[in-house]
Amino acid sequence: MNATTTVSLVGVGGQGILLAAAILAETAAAEGLDVKASEVKGMAQRGGSVLSTVRFGDKVWSPVARYADVVVATEALEGRRALGMLAPRGTLVCAATTRIIPGSVLRHEDAYPDDLAAAAAARGVRLLAVDAEGLAREAGTLRAVNVALLGAASTVLPFSQESWLRGLAAAVPAKILEVNERAFALGRESVGEEDVQ
Amino acid sequence: MERTLFFSGNEAIAHGAARAGAGFACGYPGTPSTEILETAARLEGIHAEWCINEKVALETAVGASLAGVRSIVTMKHVGLNVAADPFMTLSLTGVNAGLVVVSADDPGMHSSQNEQDNRNYARFAKVPMLEPSDSQEAYDFLAEAFALSEEFDTPVLLRTTTRVSHGRGRVVPRVPVQLEPREYVRDISKYVMVPQYARVRNRLVLERLQALRRRSEQSSLNVLEAGTADFGIIASGVAYAYAREAFPKAWSLKLGMSNPLPYAKIARLYEQVSRVAVVEELDPFIEEQVRALGLPVIGKEAIPADGELDQDAVVRALEPFVTRKAPRRRRPVFPLAPHITSPPEPPAGLPVRPPVLCPGCTHRSVYTAMRRHKLAPMGDIGCYTLGALPPLLALDSCLCMGSSIGMMAGFNKALGRKGAAAVIGDSTFFHSGITALIDAYYNEAPGLVMVLDNRTSAMTGHQGHPGTGVRADRSQGPSVDIQRLCEGIGVRCATVDANDYPALDAAIKAEVDAVGLGVIVALAPCVLTRRDKAGEIVVDEERCNLCGLCIDIGCPAIAPGETAVEITDACTGCALCVEVCRRGALVCADDGSGDGA
Questions:
Q1: What is the Cα–Cα distance from B138 to B159, expressed in whole angstroms?
Q2: How many structural domains are present in chain A?
Q3: CB–CB contact A48 B355 (8 Å)
């Protein structure tokens, strides 16, 4: 990895992408690292795609990067779309069971893609396909899909469990902290040893 | 013998516009521009009106241009600051019939608060600029300006200064220009400047600038005039007249089209002489561009950068430089055509997620009702701009904040009937719609103005505004009632519950059929500020025949299934789909308790 690591978070407006990015940024800060983040959110509430980028390292200059080392996708189509922004040998952590159907698919003008695993393999990136909805439901709220995915992503990011918990506490409102901590733990446990090399 | 007239520059502009077939003129008074419109108001065949301010004037002229009528809008230099918002984006949309913006600048500040050099606006907006140097040119350049506007699909800036506008001179009238009619053609990718369309238009503007530069090279407005001295002058506008008189033996490059500059013609001047001066009032507008070609030039180190020039001032300024030893001649370095980036392509075949109106959004009911009437809806900026996109296709234009009402007024005035309506949000209405409404009332423009009042600035994240009285710290201040405001102006106004589709439909129908100007406030709080669900919609699968009427309202919560439509979890229960269904296949369950049972 470069001295600076880039994580991009993608999804659909309303999925908590910005909160997940805030947790990640706080976690990196808790590790004593420099952090820069940027986001495109103007249309976020209107069902558009959302992209947030968090970069961390000893010293970070640019807030954006063309390619990400890790992409966290809270929706399967957005994860498929984000393959193009992954660096070679990068990792896509994707809510593979979460499908938010775009209008053009509802109207039968487009087909929802079904080739996530094959496309990831073709591009040579590692795919962590996570049933984030199932994990979030188990934790207590469907809204925690974002944090369950972060839990899965934590297995490929160089932060201690303690820093993650500090990051969660710093970014998540107190009254929903507990359910999010559960979702994070479930996400982290869901990734098997064989998945993390 | 030729008939000749003796016109001020401003009179010549008005007559030149009429001769070029302009049918619509508007503006806001300001020295030295005022007499253009006063003259136009006395001419046959051209409708002239004073507007409430320069921004509304430009938007009104845009509306008239869209309706197919050549239009001219006039203002003084500082007025273009007021009109800068529509002006900058008009460069992207272009025009239908030709549109000329006249900026009359005031070097020396005879009657102005500053002496800004509006030639910079032409470069800023990447539009062509013509600068007449006397009354004859002021008259002749209007036909050139309108032709350029239509050929290159761009507004044209015609820039004068006090001495051109208020100077008088002989004008030989010309044969009137014969025009083909230009029908209005709906084209949202050209006139609705949401980001996805504006990015494409912006690249066209960059290409247009290159094409305009080639035209500038060939144009007879830019003339290289031979002299006998080893000295050349580049000048435009009245400064050219001063320079010619000051140095009659000099070579001169006379720029009638001063944006974009003709680089090759400038280089040709340097082939003839060893010393070149740029004579221009105010900013080193031409000089800096000549220097950027790598050419030595005498400019603002000699010519004053403030106030007016005259021939004596030019002689005094340049004489010491003319007698000096010539600098070593250099070859120009032409800048390459700018690299135009292409946007990153999404992976082929993946469906995109354009932003859409939310499920339950009350704008959708307004658009569904308005669609039933054949009015070109001039749009504005806010969430409701999203209604321009498929499948609703509910707006024809989006230029800048507050532009809808002025564009509707100009469109309808040019047509002489209610051809367009205006759609504007509550926050945008307060931003800059009120002035345009007052103007439409004052100028007796017919039309229907829909104020989509969702009680917040929704698109930017639910900020307060004067209509709600909610302030930045969320404290409650006094608020302005839109209906009473409209009635205070004198405009007929009705407020309708935007969730009551039959009432809304009836109100719109009544207003479309009514004479003159009317406002309908479609009132309902933004659905995102409501947590509760209004009710449950149930599909009667026996009755649904997948006709698509409910799909066409563009609700993200409605999907066509195999044999009947399906209502997804995103549904808020607004029941607009129930209203549009003709087969009774969509039904409101009794309450919002869940399964409707």
A1: 10
A2: 1
A3: yes
